[in-house]
C-alpha cells in the first residue's frame, strides 16, 4: 500500500519567525481538536501528531478507516526544506510569470538551485524570459513542489476541504503552498 500526503508549506525567510508561527499553528491545531498534543510514531520519518476528535473538520468527507492506519499523523517540520510530489512539471518565474515546462533548461536551472538554498546559501536563478534573477524559493512550481522553512504534512488523511489554507492563513498570517501526492 502506498501513502498519501497533503502538505502546507510556509516560507517566512527567517528561522525565528517560522518557529514562532509554527508553535502558534501547532497550538491552534491542538486547541481545535484537529490533532492530539502528544507525539506518536505515526509519520514516515520521526514523530507526528495523531488525529484528534475534530480532525474531520478539515475533511471534505470523512472515512473512518484512515484513523486505524499506522501512518496517519501530522508531521511538523522547521528549517529550510522542500516538499515535492510527482506533479512538479512546471516552474513559473516570480517576476514575469512565464511558465517553463519540465523539459525546458530553465526548469533544470531552478531545481539545481534548491540544494544550495536548503544549505542556507542565497540561490538566485536568472529567468531566460525576462532576465531578472530571483531567489529559488520564490519560483512557483504550481503546487508540485514548494520550498519553505515551516510545513505541516498530513499523512494518509482523506482529502482536505478547500478552505484549510484559509484557516491556516488566519493563524499564520501567510498563505501556505499546498503540495499533495502519493509515495
What composes the largest sheet?
Answer: 4 strands, antiparallel
The strands making up the biggest β-sheet line up spatially as: 4-9-1-10
- Specify the helix fraction band: 10-25%
Count of domain modules: 2
Q: How are helices and strands ordered from N to C?
A: EHEEEEEHHEEEHE
**Judging from the principal axes of the Cα atoms, what is the shape?**
globular
Number of helices: 4
Tell me the total number of β-strands. Answer: 10
Between the first and last Cα atoms, what is the distance in angstroms? 9 Å
| DSSP strand content | 25-35%
Which regions have little confidence, pLDDT < 50, spanning 5+ residues?
A: none
Mean of residue pLDDT?
Answer: 95
Radius of gyration: 17 Å
Broad structural category: alpha+beta
Structure description:
There is one protein chain. The protein has helices at residues 15-31, 105-112, 114-118, 164-172; strands spanning 4-10, 35-40, 48-51, 74-84, 90-92, 99-101, 124-126, 133-135, 145-155, 177-182. It has four helices and ten strands. A hairpin with a 7-residue loop joins strand 2 (35-40) and strand 3. The longest helix is centred in the N-terminal third of the chain and has 17 residues, at 15-31. It has two domains: 4-83 and 144-182, no CATH class; 89-138, no CATH class. The strands form four sheets. The chain has a four-stranded antiparallel sheet with strand order 4-9-1-10. Strands 2-3 form a two-stranded antiparallel sheet. The chain has a two-stranded antiparallel ribbon with strand order 5-6. It is globular, with a radius of gyration of 17 Å. With 183 residues, the protein is α+β, with helices and mostly antiparallel strands. It starts with a strand and ends with a strand. The model has no long low-confidence stretch (mean pLDDT 95).
Amino acid at each position: 500500500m502506498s501513502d498519501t500526503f497533503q502538505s502546507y508549506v510556509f516560507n517566512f525567510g527567517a528561522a525565528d519567525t517560522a518557529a514562532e508561527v509554527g508553535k502558534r499553528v501547532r497550538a491552534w491545531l491542538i486547541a481545535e481538536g484537529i490533532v492530539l498534543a502528544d507525539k506518536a510514531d505515526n509519520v514516515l520519518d520521526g514523530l507526528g501528531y495523531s488525529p484528534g476528535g475534530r480532525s474531520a473538520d478539515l475533511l471534505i468527507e470523512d472515512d473512518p478507516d484512515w484513523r486505524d492506519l499506522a501512518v496517519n499523523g501530522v508531521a511538523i517540520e522547521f528549517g529550510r526544506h522542500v516538499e515535492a510530489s510527482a506533479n512538479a512539471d512546471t516552474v513559473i518565474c516570480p517576476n514575469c510569470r512565464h511558465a517553463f515546462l519540465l523539459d525546458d533548461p530553465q526548469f533544470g536551472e531552478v531545481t539545481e538551485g534548491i540544494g544550495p538554498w536548503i544549505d542556507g546559501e542565497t540561490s538566485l536563478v536568472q529567468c531566460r524570459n525576462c532576465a531578472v534573477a530571483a531567489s529559488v524559493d520564490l519560483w512557483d512550481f504550481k503546487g508540485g513542489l514548494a520550498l519553505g522553512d515551516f510545513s505541516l504534512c498530513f499523512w494518509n488523511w482523506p482529502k482536505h476541504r478547500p478552505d484549510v489554507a484559509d484557516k491556516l492563513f488566519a493563524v499564520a498570517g501567510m498563505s501556505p503552498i499546498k503540495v499533495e501526492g502519493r509515495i
